Amino acid sequence: MDRPQEDLDRLHRDLGRPADEVGAFNAHRLVRVHNNVWRLMWWQFLRGLAFGLGTVVGATALVSVVALILGQIEFIPIIGEIARAIIEEINGP
Question: The pTM is what?
Fold first, then answer.
């Protein structure tokens, strides 16, 4: 007769685990940020600024390196001249 009570106790304990996990998930910082509209907008704004700045800096570095490498190629006259013009534009007067 003790067996059904043990099963019920184990079932009750097992059903409490998902509730504990949901509580831990809701306490997570990222979920708390997404629960507030203004905080979410501020977070996305900062994320967009960082993404935009990283894109510009990365593209600038990549174009500069490619232009410098292509400027060293003199046996292909068209590419060398174009790269040299880009380098002069980057360096300025």
Answer: 0.49
Name the average pLDDT for the chain.
80
**Which residue's entry shows tokens 């534009």?**
89
Would 42 be classed as within a structural domain?
A: no
Q: Which domain holds residue 61?
A: 50-93
Q: Which one-letter DSSP state was computed for residue 93?
A: -
Measured distance CA(5)–CA(7) in Å, rounded = 5
Q: Are 33 and 40 in contact (CB under 8 A)?
A: yes
Assess if residue 45 is contained within a domain. Answer: no
H or E element in which residue 54 lies = helix 37-71
According to DSSP, residue 1 is labeled: -
